[in-house]
Amino acid sequence: MKIHLSSVFVDDQAKALRFYTDVLGFVKKTEVPLGEYRWLTVVSPEDPNGTELVLEPDSHPAVKPYTTALVADGIPATSFAVDDVHTEFNRLRELGVHFTQDPVEMGPVITAVLDDTCGNLIQIAQYR
């Protein structure tokens, strides 16, 4: 068994697609119209057949209270592995990305947390 899909709830799929592709560097894998929304996934260009991230509409009534509470408590919705947190932090900062946590060393990992502009905090992590 392996993880095939993971989701983040987003307040605007078009805005999320732009952020996750143009800023974070993922590539669109799937886009299927489903009425008002789309089945929309992105993947790492380094692993195009790997785990897909679903940019899931936040239209379910439980989503807003859930994501609002996570953000209020500073809890990331998910985490992405990077080779060098400091390099990614600087690259993303130069692109105007807002970080809620600068790089921090925590034992075997260095992490930073960013705002994805779509209602989520996202952690980037470098494992040493």
UniProtKB/TrEMBL annotation:
Highest taxon listed in the record's lineage: Bacteria
Start and end residues of each VOC domain: 2-127
Natural source organism: Streptomyces coffeae
Protein known as: VOC family protein
InterPro entries: Glyas_Bleomycin-R_OHBP_Dase, Glyas_Fos-R_dOase_dom, VOC_core
CDD domains named among the record's database cross-references: VOC_like (cd07263)
Pfam families per UniProt: Glyoxalase
